[in-house]
Amino acid sequence: MSELIEVRGLEKSFDQPVLRGVDFTAAAGTATAVLGPSGSGKTTLLRSLNVLETPDAGLVRISDARLDFGEPPAGKAAYRQAVKALRARSGMVFQSHNLFPHRTVLENLIEGPVQVQRRDRAEAVEDARALLAQVGLAGRDDAYPAQLSGGQQQRVGIARALALRPEVLLLDEPTSALDPELVGEVLDVVRDLAQQGWTLVIVTHEVRFARDVADQVLFLDEGRIVERGGPEVLTDPREERTRRFLSRVLDPG
Amino acid sequence: MVLLLGLLAVLAPGLALTPAGAAPADGDQPRVVRVGTEGVYPPFSYRDPESNELTGFDVDIVRAVAEEAGWDLRFVEAPFDSLFPALDSGRLDVIANQVTVTPEREARYLFSTPYTYSRGVVVTAADTDDITSLEDLEGRTSAQTASSNWAEVARNAGAKVQYVQDFGPGVELLIQGRVDAIVNDNIAVLDYLATSGTDEVKIAGPAGEEVLEQALAFTRRDTQLREEADAAIAALTEDGTLAEISEGYFGADVTVEGGTTDVDVQASDTRGRWEVVQDTAWPMFVGLLKGTLPLTAASFVIGLALGLAAALARLSSIRALDWIARFYISVIRGTPLLVQLFIVFYGLPQIGVDLDPYPAAIIALSLNVGGYAAEILRAAILSVPRGQYEAATVIGMDYGQSMRRVVLPQAARIAVPPLSNTLLSLIKDTSLASLVLVPELFREAQVTAAATTEYLPLYALAALYFWVVCYVVSVAQGPLERRLSRYVA
């Protein structure tokens, strides 16, 4: 159990195979960056970790929650329980934030803790305020999401995911829907989280950011992990495919 | 229809179900007898202009009979064409409304000793001179109430029959030249001429030589009630009560054969137009408060719940639920509300589901609202982005929580404008409830219009009431929409 996240032989097909047997592990307190060309399966991989996509085969374990999709537990109730356990151990930040537009910033943060985790409301509010301060949005409790900039919305999205006190934070391209000048403020928040020792899995196109922050880099292509290693994968890749991808991303045109 | 019944079975326990037919007299308790009468057929059955109380020759007769026989009377006012279905379905025990005894009716109903002997007359516009008898109706158009014996008489004379709800609207058609004649009872016609003071229509001649008999009508099962009525009528004839009532209305005794040739009918209503409108404004307002508004509120709330259930069923991954909901929505949207209302009120008693007027109207209107609201709500739910479901899912919400806390609040904003359309339709559709014996706003207007012939001012007043209510509702829509949209930048 030294590794907090364990993924074995993950397979998923839509019309054609998207994941063709993905294995990796991640230790507690590390940041894992998942990179790869579009269509390589990185978002599907991330969404398999909290079962927003249901893999066809393979195993996912986060902490003590474990689900083998090849041999799912017998009975609907047991399966649902296993899915619920995986989701309870992870928080998710979406590409397009998916904040609840009809609730204020504070309400977005306490919705899960109060409604799902049944935590004391006053305590949840206190937690939420601390998280808002951490992402640089202290005092914006009563704003509605539509009144915030894209970068602010995404920072609230991060705070909402953290409010559930997950063991792992999953981030699905957290900056790709943002205007370029807003990317930095979001990346700064993620960098802070990594430094504070949160376990992160980040699907991203920001190569420089991944190089700075990631303890582990997964390079995906056509549903397989082509290269897995430390941040040096992004400076000195062993695989030709990784090299080609990096040169295209870092030096477009 | 299976689904309709299923939904009814679900709804029914919450609503008052009455056993078919009134219970027979139990010990000293007088038997409750429900009397059906039009209330819009002066001078036989109408509302007194001063007091707005039900009165008239037939009403007085049946009251006297009840007193003699020891019945506890309950009057139910309904259009003539609704009276026989109501008697058939056990909502009435007797009809007192100048029901003419015919062989066809005798095969289906029991009749008391007749209490009126009358003759038919042919009524035409004042300037029609080529119709003077029943024979002249061959190939002409005649305005009649569908289930009245006079419709039969007109048809047999070769007339094309145009169906109307009661006598008054028929006369309007006559004046407007849309029909050629009306065949009706001479007393009713004389009363109309006296009340309206019109010189635009006239009695053109007799409708045959036959003397017709009018009597109280009972179901074939109710021989006991008929016997009690006959005994009472015999006693009241003996002591002169019937003759006295008849003299009071017609200056002649129409309760014995041969007394109808020379009747003197007093106008049953002598008020001027504005007096009529003023006097009717309050009863109509009461009809609005006691009929229209509660019907609307109850039907809208229940209908929304049904609509939401149907919308969620349509969106369900369970095939059977989807198909049931599709069928329900299709039936409701593909059939007239009036037909739905009649099925619930007049049809279901035949399979043992016997509902009072209010519950029946609420069920029919709710089912109708539900069918339309379902599609509105379904579209609104579909308009909530997929990411919202995902966000709810990853914070651990189950289906119920995501719907209640995330999806429906956002769908509500989208659904309010089309739902307020549904509400406005519903407010106006409640006027149909008058046909299943619910006394609401429009029914009050009809009652007085029939007695006074003041159609335009009274119906205009009814329209004004409806318009004001709808206007208030549409004004309230604005703040509600703003409140539901307060989070939209």
From TrEMBL, chain A:
Give the keywords, sorted: ATP-binding, Cell membrane, Membrane, Nucleotide-binding, Transport
User: In its keyword annotation, does this UniProt entry include ATP-binding?
Assistant: yes
Q: Which SUPFAM superfamilies match?
A: P-loop containing nucleoside triphosphate hydrolases
| Subcellular location per the Swiss-Prot or TrEMBL entry | Cell membrane
Question: InterPro entries from the xrefs?
Answer: AAA+_ATPase, ABC_ATPase_HisP-typ, ABC_transporter-like_ATP-bd, ABC_transporter-like_CS, MetN_ABC_transporter-like, P-loop_NTPase
Keyword Kinase attributed: no
Q: What is this protein called?
A: Amino acid ABC transporter ATP-binding protein
Q: Which organism is it from?
A: Nocardioides abyssi
From TrEMBL, chain B:
Q: Which family does it belong to?
A: Belongs to the binding-protein-dependent transport system permease family.
Listed Gene3D superfamilies:
MetI-like (1.10.3720.10), Periplasmic binding protein-like II (3.40.190.10)
Q: Which residues cross the membrane?
A: 293-315, 327-348, 456-476
Q: Where in the cell is it found?
A: Cell membrane
Xref: Pfam families? BPD_transp_1, SBP_bac_3
Membrane disposition = Multi-pass membrane protein
| Domain spans labelled ABC transmembrane type-1 | 289-477
Which keywords has UniProt assigned to this entry?
Amino-acid transport, Cell membrane, Membrane, Signal, Transmembrane, Transmembrane helix, Transport
Q: Which residues form the signal peptide?
A: 1-22
Protein name (Swiss-Prot/TrEMBL): ABC transporter substrate-binding protein/permease
Q: Which domain of life is it from?
A: Bacteria
S-adenosyl-L-methionine as a keyword? no
Q: Which organism is it from?
A: Nocardioides abyssi
